[in-house]
Amino acid sequence: MSASAKLPPFDAADPLGIDDLLDPEDLAIRDTVRGWAADRVLPYVADWYEKGELPQIRELARELGGLGALGMSLTGYGCAGATAVQYGLACLELEAADSGIRSLVSVQGSLAMYAIHRFGSEEHKREWLPRMAAGEVIGCFGLTEPDHGSDPASMRTHAKRDGSDWVLNGRKMWITNGSVAGVAVVWAATEEGIRGFVVPAGTPGFSAPEIKHKWSLRASVTSELVLDDVRLPASAVLPEVVGLRGPLSCLSHARYGIVWGAMGAARSSFEAAVEYAKTREQFGRPIGGFQLTQAKLADMAVELHKGILLAHHLGRRMDAGRLRPEQVSFGKLNNVREAIEICRTARTILGANGISLEYPVMRHATNLESVLTYEGTVEMHQLVLGKALTGIDAFR
User: Fold this and answer.
1) For the segment 10-45, what is each residue's pLDDT rounded down to a tens digit?
2) CA geometry: angle 395, 338, 357, nearest 5 deg
3) Domains in the chain, please, with CATH?
4) What confidence tens digit (pLDDT) does each residue in 170-227 have?
5) Which of 7, 234, 285, 362 has the fewest CB atoms within 10 Å of its CB?
6) Which residues are in the Acyl-CoA dehydrogenase/oxidase C-terminal domain (predicted)?
7) Active-site residue, selected from the candidate residues 145, 303, 338, 375
8) pTM (whole model) above 0.90
9) DSSP 8-state class, residue 391
């Protein structure tokens, strides 16, 4: 660059110029999802959160299907075939509205649809994926149990052969979308190892009571899955995988979306703090003019945009087929942890107003407390990285 070349103006919304890394299609997808969230979620989400419900979930799912946001990084069967970066940008915009909306999309696409797409039979794919991509059928993913979260190998849900059928018994817990799902991908222990099963919601013995009294992810449907002698034909089993590699690969795909999504919650809280600091006056001037407030905003901006850069880097690696599970753990550990700190700092800038649902900050902060521990707790991701760094397994 010559000394006389004119620099672009500083953009407070994009201080590192990250948009320069995105092509027009990336930007179009991001802006489409952002516009949909602004129109269909933001005007209502505080009320949904306060009431602890997501009353329009089926309608929202169909709209998200119309946008191509469900299973959007999968190819064929009605899926959009978007890049990993484009999917990540969508997750960021959805979670900037609310973590519950991003969770709806993540569980549908990165867990339930991904499991069927990668490990299911051709019949599974043809039967379920086009309707799930359109949002006509909502899916859920049954892995976590009441007594087994971080240690899925010890799951108690089991499946036994009975002639040509399978019979499933067990319980799954904290299942997003469970009560409204038309199909569940359920993982169970068998004599040959852990297997995945495609369970239509109307199957006798299958039920999904909704979990109430949550203080986080309140604008989201969370359920228990109950399996009492659920009889399934042999064709219900996912044929292409045996063992934990199946559910763990699905989780890695979902965690990638969280790496982006957490930065959406952080961005929303940061933007609220900036606007508040410019208008809230104390001691005769806006609080944004005080050094301590500016220091907080600067630190928040640094961590926010570092996190987005990290997510973008991991997305490019995924698109190149070079993203390792340890790198996903790196991103999930860092970005969710920093997002929570950004929300907490934003709350201090808003003072007492920070706890009001008139602002998004406390809603995002409490949502992220769930995001911090689902799809792998902080400790599990630390141990994944610790093993990768030392070569020593410290899980047991």
Assistant:
1) 999 999 999 999 999 999 999 999 999 999 999 999
2) 120
3) 18-133 (1.10.540.10), 139-242 (2.40.110.10), 246-390 (1.20.140.10)
4) 999 999 999 999 999 999 999 999 999 999 999 999 999 999 999 999 999 999 999 9
5) 7
6) 243-389
7) 375
8) yes
9) S
